[in-house]
């Protein structure tokens, strides 16, 4: 019965993820994963050998475009994680219904759902967290050497997907020592140490793929010692890990606490944390070892994410969110057995309502923005007529890698830093054979800094984005619209003069731009805005615009978030996902059903990119 429930949960969650699946390529790490999958040479910097092996198998078996196949793999992995969580939740609470509630609470949480519909490593990581906890609980119930070996093997295998498996080690070690049937010293018996060592070595062998690739690079290692040193540096990303792990400035700790509370409520509402606290107390009274295990896993993972100085720290909270869901499911232990299933069913009803509300906001099935940006950047280009020299925001660059490798291999391109030393000769040689040299804006600046007037450039007018004022002035009077303005990240500049003029043109001069890190304005073109909301904290608000219900959801914490795969906010009109809000300016004109007629972005990675032509 428990296995049937796990299967049912997995099928239901997969259907949910499949309906909202990103159709193709994305920017950022997702674009990098999509470009890398299927490669025979996986460098240490690429890491994640198990993730790429599974992704490559999906691409081969399904025959889908690699980006779509890798997105689909995440959805399947997320569904498997949901099934495993039913089993873990049932083990902890003794209730199948509570296990279902645990699974669905986590599977429909905002961040996990958003990561399970794109090419990312976190859905597979959740599988390994859930699987190792399940195997550990089953070993504790019947401590055989076979069950212990299975736990060691799966734990070691998980390192092939993500090295953050190491954050589970303190909690697992403590639980093993507390649960050893013959006392903690028995866990140090030679046979057990040998099994653990063998499993660890087998798990490490997954990275032989990455290590081997070093000998196929332009500068292969001098020997095994040099290879291992380079491998360790790259696979652990030592160059930035040393400045980001446990390197949060003390002045930001209070703000990050507010960020974490915002993030936790975004996943589970207020209900989840309250039930998790109740579940912790119930487990502590009923089976203290289990409480210690889950508390240890939660604390280590939450503290790591809390002190991790990266622009997408919200995704590193996912393992701790999984533990919160398990503890919330265990809260049924605080009531008498006859009504446990009823309480769990109430929790499932709450989760269903939350999933129904969040579904439109998390639906990326129609999100083709990355391709549209790259279409604009490379329009009319092929290797017989032009070459693109670029230096772009790293998120766009990763998308370009996939775009030019899979979708448009006819595009010749190279990073400007890689050719800057001989750029003038490159321009001359390509001009001699009638091929244009096209550069992006940042590449043009690098060229000018290095060679001054020696290499001239002129803007390609076909790619010049319209001023926002001109673009919004063209919106027909009477058209419904929504405009959001979020404080841009440091690598983008917001043209406030153009923005202010655009807003006045859109509203017939009747609405001025309010101040605040988060701004949302909605109405009908040519008239004063119907709805204006602004503030320095994220908010949710709703308004009626010409008969349509517009819901604005600010889903980010700008003090820490510089990367948001799902966007920094959402606009939903009558349950239609109308606009993904980014930092900077995001705009959509929409019809009576909420379908976007026209969208525009400025001062963010989805803004149109101008390009320039080079001459000597």
Description:
With about 625 residues, the chain is α+β, with helices and mostly antiparallel strands. The protein has helices at about 1-20, 30-35, 50-60, 65-95, 95-105, 110-115, 120-140, 145-160, 170-180, 190-205, 210-215, 225-235, 240-245, 255-270, 270-285, 290-305, 315, 320-330, 340-360, 370-380, 395-405, 415-420, 425-430, 440-450, 470-475, 495-505; strands spanning about 385-390, 410-415, 435-440, 455-460, 480-485, 520-525, 530-535, 540-545, 550-555, 570-575, 575-580, 585-590, 595-600, 610-615. The protein folds into three domains: about 1-210 and about 340-360, no CATH class; about 370-465; about 470-600, no CATH class. The chain is built from 26 helices and 14 strands. A five-stranded mixed beta sheet has the order 2-1-3-14-4. A five-stranded antiparallel beta sheet has the order 7-6-5-12-13, with no helix packed on it. Strand 1 (about 385-390), helix 21 (about 395-405) and strand 2 (about 410-415) form a beta-alpha-beta unit. Helix 2 packs parallel to helix 21, helix 4 (about 65-95) runs parallel beside helix 7 and helix 7 runs antiparallel to helix 8 (about 145-160). The termini are far apart. The model has no long low-confidence stretch (mean pLDDT about 95).
